[in-house]
Amino acid sequence: MNKTKKIAGFTLLETLIVMSLVGCLVILTISPLKRSYSSLEEKIFWWKMERTWVSQYQNVKQKKQALKIIYYPTRVVFKSDQQVILKYPATLAVFKIQKIQVNSRGHVKPATVIFKSKVNNCYYYVKFQLGYGGCYRIEQKME
């Protein structure tokens, strides 16, 4: 009497089906994670922009030195006695190169810099208003 033992386990077909289902789930979760990450990068950029503006503007008031803010296609540069460079996230695009000048008394000429976000398809308007006191704000408008 020849008895053969049957080994319990998964067949190749069952393993392939499970692996393809897992692969599909992984692919479906990557896109929302990438969007979330890009959105977070933009929020961090705007936070850094705000902090840099406040510190540079206070520096102007304390040291009575002029400040130049230059918006390049890939970065914004704050120039005074110290230079600060902030790179844009890959999802933000500025529409034109623009220079903003703050004189040694803190006076800013009115100007608007427009950014386009690829994450949520909106525009950011960075507005510098005429006057003293560091008049600066960011408005978000949907496309």
TrEMBL record:
GO terms for cellular component: cell surface
Keywords: Competence, Membrane, Transmembrane, Transmembrane helix
Domain of life, per lineage: Bacteria
Keyword Membrane: yes
Pfam families, A to Z: N_methyl
Chief localization: other
Transmembrane segments: 7-30
Subcellular localization(s) per the UniProt record: Cell surface
One example of a Gene Ontology biological process annotation: establishment of competence for transformation
Entry keyword Membrane: yes
This protein's name: Type II secretion system protein
Organism: Ligilactobacillus ceti DSM 22408
